[in-house]
Amino acid sequence: MGDGVLVVLIYAAGWLAFGRQDWFENPGPAEYAVMLTLGASAAIIVEWRALSRGRWRYSARMPLIPGVRVGLTPVLQMIVLPPVIFYLVAALRHG
Length: 95
Fold this sequence. Notes:
By secondary structure, the chain is mostly helical. The chain has one domain (2-93). The protein is built from three helices and no strands. It has helices at 2-18, 29-52, 72-93. The chain starts with a helix and ends with a helix.
């Protein structure tokens, strides 16, 4: 559910940034930059806050991102998922 909310927030930010609801349908470098930057930033913030509040912990096998010390896997997930989701939504909208 939380990742879904983050994707909706990324969509809203793109709509505001580009001034059109369909900003994700034919993405160029700027649109991909919004998806990737906001996805990574949101994941880092969510992970950092959850870790600092003790909501969850990582096992010793979780690779961490140097400097921010959050898990690489959850951040990669929010880098990959938004472009995939927007691609699928665009494909569904246009048959």
